[in-house]
Design goal:
Order of helices and strands: HHHHHH
Structural class: mainly alpha
Length: 175
Amino acid sequence: MKKLFTILIIAVFAFAGLSAQGMQEKRNNDPNKNEHCIGDQPYYQYMVFRMTEILELTPEQAEKLFPLNRPYRDSKHSLHMQMNVLSDEVFQKKEITESDLEKYKNEIDRLHKEEMKLDDKFIGDVEKFLEPGQVAKLIFFEPRFRQELSHELKQRYQPNPEEKKGKNKFWKKRK
């Protein structure tokens, strides 16, 4: 059963990748294109793969979840990009007045509230077809995924601990 499910998921990704090539060309030619579409990144594709594994999604659940997930991730990414623009603006200014401070506080508060509404709506939508345990794992999925990915990348690209200089720490006593 697991092999069948794995083969089905791989086939879906392969078909989606092939059919998305034509869509990618249309999106690249679109002048109103969102420059920061997270769904086009390999990170997102790997995240979808891991989400399928960790949440133990059935094919029916995956068919319902991922069409909701992509616009949610894109909207959330857009909000984060707006926060980054605001942050850049703050750090580029030489002086910030009280009125500027109020403007920044109100804007970041608005963006955080918008993000919370987005999260609540998404969770409400997926609660209709996911089990409670799957919803709980989904809520905490992204921070855990980022932590695991960071750990995997460190292991892959960091030299072996035996090869590091100074492996004998000065605070350890010699035998």
